Amino acid sequence: MGNRIGNLMDVRTDIKVLDATIRDGGLCNNFEFTDEFVRALYEMNVRAGIDYMEFGYKASKTMFKESDFGKWKFCNEEDIRAIVGDNPTEMKISVMADVGRCDYKTDFLPKKDSVIDMVRVACYIHQIPAAIEMIEWFHELGYETTCNIMAISQANSDQIAQALAMLGTTNVDVIYLVDSYGSLYPENASDYARIYLEAVENTDKKIGFHAHNNQNLAFANTIDTLSRGVSYLDATVQGMGRGAGNCAMELLLGFLKNPKYKLYELLPFIEEYMIPLRESGVVWGYDLQYMFTGLLNRHPREAMDFTAKKRGDYAEFYKTLLENE
To answer: Are residues 158 and 307 in the same domain?
Structure first.
């Protein structure tokens, strides 16, 4: 399974923590966060020592109507600047661009004119050629880049090997292992991490991990892949993210030994903003319906529908999923 790097007392200086609360959490509330919320989260992330904050998606304005979503579905330059100014901090700013769902040739400024530092290109494994084209475009514009290969638990080992070999020849900075369905366990998350790490062994590329919490393993999988050498770690405050949510930032900061990360800074923000957000009716987090889809290695869309309809017939739902296997 590969050796562990360091030990529980070590500080690993290669670790980078990325806050995806607005981007993945935005899938829970249609990206309708107030500017006050986003500004408070930004200031909290800076104080807590977070390395990157992802503001949302750069979605296509021809495919998606701006009036149907909150502004962080589109991450206009002026909207980000209204929160961060010129971002005179150590923390970098990231946005996500989905293959096939963004107008990347028209919607991105050259890096020198933008407050964004990193563009994360999200794709499924069959979209790797399109992802590479985007990565090279963003690299030319001057951005740091990542490739987030989604739903990796559904890809076969040949596809994964091919994708990693192709990405190895590009200018991508970080390749992300993404457990979109929350179906991985620490054992196989580690196996994937080893495959990804071996693929970039003789390069300066890094590996990242993005977890979903369908089986209550987002944090466990994150720290297990970290222990194998994965260095870019995604988390969200209180695990806020699509469906069962993500690795909780407070768990991750409680675990990391680097004194630059300050768990305490999250707590007033959670009290003042996250608790009221939940009380307002925004729903995310572990529940049985998400466990079932994670267990069966399926997209959580049926579980999300179950949640939206406020259903409670778990046995019937599980039976239906099994019948449709």
So the answer is: no
Residue 311 domain boundaries: 288-323
Residues 149 and 274 in one domain: yes
- Can you tell me the distance from the alpha carbon of 32 to that of 48, in angstroms, rounded to the nearest whole number? 24
Confidence of residue 2 (pLDDT cuts 50, 70, 90): low
Separation of CA 185 from chain center: 18
Query: Which CATH number belongs to the domain containing residue 87 in this structure?
Result: 3.20.20.70
- Quick: pLDDT tens for 218-261: 999 999 999 999 999 999 999 999 999 999 999 999 999 999 99
Do 148 and 294 lie in one domain? The reply is no
Does one domain contain both 263 and 292?
A: no
What's the number of domains the chain is made of? Answer: 2
Cα–Cα distance list, 155 to 26, 79, 149, 319 (Å): 26, 37, 10, 25
